[in-house]
Design a protein that fits this description.
By secondary structure, this protein is an alpha/beta fold. The protein has 2 domains: about 250 residues, ABC transporter type 1, transmembrane domain (ABC transporter transmembrane region fold, Up-down Bundle); about 210 residues, 3-Layer(aba) Sandwich (Rossmann fold). The protein is built from 18 helices and 12 strands. The strands form 3 sheets. A 6-stranded mixed β-sheet has the order 8-9-10-6-11-12, sandwiched between helices. A 4-stranded mixed β-sheet has the order 3-7-4-5, with helices on one face. A two-stranded antiparallel sheet has the order 1-2. A hairpin with a 5-residue loop joins strand 4 and strand 5.
Length: about 575
């Protein structure tokens, strides 16, 4: 479920995301930070209780023109205020430490799940492909942690505040005489009941008005991520777009994507406006509501001004506490949308494990690679290759040829272990080291030296060896910028990137090299040179190439023609 909203229990969904961290080795540290945050928040609540009692004395001093008591009350308030600020700062600081620790751990956990079993690659084979996993790992994890702590700490504060002030409100409410059908009775603590009924009605109406905003927020995140993805694609393929002069079409496409973002956002605005209209009316009524209810007792002189102000303060505290879910509705809606995306990410990672999986076997045979009864399928179960058998020894060089679309690249993917849809047996020699070079080379971030040595660390290779192979691969022009960190993927031509791939092979010295049209952007002279280097420096390694040019046949001793029965034949170049 990568594009729909869940309908399961909210707490269950939240716990499925939070559980790994709170059951990890970090649980003691996390628990201590959370407990400290709660304690400081509760101490802040205690100060608000003291301030509520202070209201009575303060307004009583005003009513009785008691200047001494008035000044004394101001001094007392300053102590309460500074203490409250101190507790709030401590709670906020400790919470930030908890947030960053939780985010660091959960991000590492999700990245591990993304890379485990090559899920980042295999997720493309799911019926419903996951959208924008980068956003889920970067933005959604951070949002989930922040919103979860907001709601958890807010709920705890509201419960403690409610328990603290409901007793005060009950005590100072007095009793309300009620006459119903000829019967008279007194309702003790009547303001508590009024606050409860008032809040329940407000919460129910808010949830009825605001329910659609949960789906709208979920969709907004999807649309925003889709728009960003298309902007990134324009940057990535800027040269291709410029060659095609496709600015108008690309601009039109981007504007359509942005229109979807705007239209959904407008829907959110209108829905939010309805929520805001009601909640603002609700909040403003709550300001004067306790005065209206208690005014008769004040004007009858049953209570004094200080009592009236204390009632107002306590009523608002109780009402605010009871209105927690109402006032947090927008937070809840965002939290639900974030949970749906993160749980969708987890579902997709689990679903990749359910894909057909054939583990490549390892043996002590002298062959570097053995393929037995290999049949390859497409995800729709269409067969593209049937019962292929061959074996390659150290030093064998296999060239795979055939028409476009016949399945040459898919065969390489299956042999290298990243294509899940096949039957048969693939066996590699134990402790074998492989390297797969595609037609469009991968250029990671880092210095020029880093991209040459990838995936091996540049620190493990002697600089003189690096310089030697750079010269041999016609990369001498970049010797002086070996340690420069630039956007090399956009600065280098495809031909230069392919030369880097061959230099990378020579530096890594793999036992088996897979070359998927790895010289397609090079002239024949450079192609001949680079294959010659592999023949010289990887003489006793196994190379499997996919190519179209007849020139490279010279550097291979085996041929697999996928247009001619897929039978491997030995080549004799004498």
């Amino acid at each position: 479920m990568s594009s729909s909203i869940r309908s399961q229990n909210w707490l269950k969904d939240a716990w499925s995301i939070a559980k790994p961290y709170w059951k990890s080795s970090k649980k003691l540290k996390a628990g201590s930070l959370l407990l400290a945050t709660i304690v400081f928040n509760l101490m802040s609540v205690y100060i608000t209780v003291l301030i509520n009692k202070w209201y009575n004395k303060f307004y009583a001093s005003i009513q009785h023109y008691d200047k001494k008591a008035f000044i004394s009350s101001l001094y007392l308030f300053s102590i309460f205020a500074f203490t409250f600020i101190f507790f709030q700062i401590c709670a906020s600081l400790i919470r930030k430490f908890l947030e960053i620790d939780w985010r660091r751990w959960l991000t590492a956990y999700y990245i591990d799940k993304w890379f485990a079993n090559q899920s980042y690659y295999k997720s493309r084979f799911l019926d419903k492909k996951m959208d924008n996993p980068d956003q889920r790992i970067s933005d959604d994890i951070n949002d989930f942690i922040s919103l979860t702590l907001d709601l958890t700490l807010g709920l705890i504060n509201s419960l403690v505040t409610l328990l603290s002030f409901i007793t005060i409100l009950w005590y100072i409410s007095g009793s309300l005489p009620v006459h119903i059908f000829g019967h008279y009775f007194n309702v003790n603590g009547y303001l508590v009941y009024i606050a409860l009924v008032y809040t329940l009605i407000g919460t129910y109406i808010t949830f009825k008005i605001g329910r659609p905003i949960i789906k709208l927020n979920f969709l907004q995140q999807n649309y925003e991520a889709d728009f960003r993805y298309n902007l990134i694609r324009v940057r990535e393929y800027s040269e291709n777009i410029a060659f095609y002069q496709g600015e108008k079409e690309e601009g039109h496409n981007l504007f359509n994507k942005f229109n979807i973002v705007v239209n959904n956002f407008v829907a959110i605005i209108y829905r939010q406006m309805k929520i805001d209209i009601f909640t603002n009316i609700y909040s403003q009524i709550a300001v004067v509501f306790p005065f209206i209810i208690s005014s008769s007792r004040y004007f009858s002189k049953a209570i004094q001004l200080g009592d009236l102000m204390q009632i107002n303060s306590a009523f608002n505290r109780v009402q605010d506490s009871l209105s927690f879910f109402l006032s947090s509705y927008n937070v809840l809606a965002n939290w639900r949308a974030v949970m749906d995306r993160l749980n969708g990410f987890q579902d997709d990672m689990e679903n990749t494990l359910k894909l057909p999986f054939h583990k490549i076997e390892f043996s002590n045979n002298q062959n570097n690679l053995t393929v037995k009864d290999l049949s390859i399928l497409l995800p729709n179960n269409k067969q593209i290759l049937n019962l292929l058998n061959f074996s390659l020894n150290p030093g064998d060089k296999l060239l795979i040829i055939g028409k476009s679309g016949v399945g040459k690249t898919t065969l390489l993917r299956a042999i290298s272990g990243i294509w899940p849809f096949y039957t048969g047996k693939i066996t590699l020699k134990e402790n074998i080291k492989t390297l797969f070079i595609t037609q469009k080379p991968y250029i990671p971030e880092g210095s020029f030296k880093d991209i040459l040595c990838y995936p091996m660390s540049a620190e493990k290779i002697d600089k003189e060896i690096i310089l030697k192979f750079m010269r041999l691969c016609e990369l001498s022009a970049y010797i002086n910028v070996l340690d420069s960190v630039k956007d090399w993927s956009n600065l280098l031509s495809i031909g230069e990137q392919q030369k880097i791939s061959f230099c990378r092979i020579l530096l890594n010295q793999p036992d088996i090299v897979f070359l998927d049209e790895a010289t397609s952007a090079l002239d024949e002279e450079s192609e001949y040179l680079l294959y010659g280097l592999l023949n010289t420096h990887l003489k006793y390694k196994t190379i499997i190439s996919v190519g179209h040019r007849k020139l490279i046949i010279k550097w291979h001793n085996c041929l697999l023609n996928m247009d001619n029965g897929c039978k491997m034949e030995k080549l004799n170049h004498e």
